Amino acid sequence: MMGLQEFLADNYRTELTAFRAVLNGIPDEAFGIDRLGHSPAWHALHIADWLRLTVLGDRTANYHYLGWEDKDWAQAMRTDAAPVQQDASKADILARLDTVGEQAVAYLQNASDADMEGMTFSPSAPTGERPRLAAVGLHLRHIAYHRGQVVIGQKD
């Protein structure tokens, strides 16, 4: 029987592969162009940032693509330069997504039961935190949502 951690890692791996496939299909010259509010580049960096925050629990203050930039908590998390800027090359942005995605899958694969229990920082939640498993589950669906946004944004 597949354990919880393997199940989560496998689902993240599958969703990130599907998201990456959609991003791969965007021509380089269109990757940085806003469609329906954001560019494919922004969506990729947005998911990388939320993977760091939600799955890895990284609180480094270099978040620039959380999508809540008008909120005090998001502004407090962006005092340092972004690891990769939205105007970077498609290859650099996708490399960033791949690196963070691989770290997240590895973390989930190797997480203990205790790592999956309790509450976790979740600034968009009404109380600022939510149960760890709920946060990880919500974020998995969040990746699928942004995959769909990129697809819809490419339709004329």
Automatic annotation (TrEMBL):
Domain DinB-like intervals: 15-150
One of the Pfam families matching this protein, by short name: DinB_2
Gene3D superfamilies documented for this protein: dinb family like domain
InterPro entries found in the cross-reference section: DinB-like, DinB/YfiT-like
Name assigned to this protein: DinB-like domain-containing protein
Record lineage: Bacteria, Thermotogati, Deinococcota, Deinococci, Deinococcales
